[in-house]
Amino acid sequence: MALWAFLPVMAGISCSTQAQNQEQQPSQGEQQVARVYMFKEISSENLVKIYEALGREATGKVAVKLSTGEPGGHNFLQPSLIQTLVQKVNGTIVECNTAYGGGRADTENHLKAAADHGFTAIAPVDIMDAEGEAALPVQGGKHLKENYVGAHYPQYDFTIILSHFKGHAMGGFGGAIKNMSIGIASSGGKAWIHSAGKTKSNPWSNLPAQDDFLESMAEAAKSVADHCGDKILYISVANNLSVDCDCDASPEAPRMGDIGILASLDPVALDKACTDLVRASSDPGKVHLIERIDSRHGMHTLEYGEQIGLGTQSYELITLD
Fold first, then answer.
1. 8 A C-beta contact, residue 296 and residue 15
2. I need a labelling partner for 59 at 20 to 30 A (CA). Which of 85, 91, 172, 313 fits?
3. Is residue 131 classed exposed, middle or buried when 0-12, 13-18 and 19+ CB atoms within 10 A define those classes?
4. Helices marked H in 229-321
């Protein structure tokens, strides 16, 4: 694995990093560089350490957004890995029902899947759209004016976006931005994003242009970041690097080795660092994940996210021991 300490990429402005330390804030005309922390070893202890390295304490009622995994799948983040962190912040694992059917399309079956996969044994699990949805305004979007999230989501004081970084059949890859957009969206909100703001019912028969979908994900993510202000942080675990998402009941087996745990206060920088590390890897199996990302034009999500102020692609990678 090729690692580096400083990796300047494209510049941008992040709404979600506005509460970082003063030395991280750019003066007028100066490029902003986000900090992305990394542990190469994936462990419960390092998951807690990387949370602490961010310097932003999760307080109040804490939502931990992760995927509890489609029944039949097995690549999702394991409860044994995340338990210490979730319990340290007294967090509630939060999800919303799916828009594609499957084993998590309704609250009863979704909770059963969470229990079967071991999540209800380590923390409370809240299916946030069990009682409907709430609308968050989207500022500066060209596809969405509102993002529809689970009705329970506004009840939380702080959000940890705890993502399994991997491929995705539609987005190219799934990381922080997908987890905070489609993941926090209600079932109808998921359809709204997938259809680029055309329908909250079945969008699959009339999907928009690919870039419109990718841009809608970024717009929905920005609404969450704007809602949270400095009450959000982002952690991604790059393991079990299948080309398929945890929403797939029969994901393809990973063809490259694990990368590590990464974290940032900027979701664009975090997703960019994960994709850069895939590309920089010496593992020949990376070609499959890179093909999945590029064939879906996945990097456009980050380009557009930077354009609308969700975050920056310019970052400093800080490797921790």
1. no
2. 313
3. exposed
4. 267-280, 286-295, 300-307
Here the tokens at position 230 are 């400095």
* Helix or strand (DSSP H, E) at 225: helix 210-228
Residue type, 317: L
What is the residue whose two structure tokens read 């030395």? 23
Q: Specify which residues 303 forms β-bridges with.
A: none
Q: How far apart are CA 195 and CA 210, in angstroms?
A: 10
CB 286 within 8 A of CB 316: no
Please state the φ and ψ torsions of residue 289, each to the nearest 5 degrees.
-70, -40
- b/e map 261-289, b = 16+ CB within 10 Å: bbbbbbbbbbbbbbbbbbeebeeeebebb
Q: Mean pLDDT across the chain, nearest whole number? A: 90
**In angstroms, how far is CA 112 from the centroid of its own chain?**
23
Please give the pLDDT value at position 5: 32
d(CA 51, CA 44): 11
- The CA-atom distances, in angstroms, between 223 and each of 109, 135, 136, 219, 232 are 28, 10, 6, 6, 12
Backbone torsions φ then ψ of 277, nearest 5 degrees: -70, -35
Q: What is the pLDDT of residues 253-285, one digit of tens each?
A: 889 999 999 999 999 999 999 999 999 999 999
pTM assigned to the model:
0.90
Residues in CB range of 147: below 8 A, 6 or more apart: 135, 136, 137, 138, 181, 185, 189, 192, 193, 219, 220, 223, 224
Q: Which residues contact 97 (CB under 8 A, 6 or more apart)?
A: 104, 105, 106, 107, 110, 127, 129, 130, 186, 187
SS3 state at 7: strand
Residues 279 and 292 sit within 8 Å (Cβ to Cβ): no
Beta bridge partner(s), residue 125:
93
Give the end-to-end CA distance of the chain in Å, rounded to a whole number.
Answer: 16
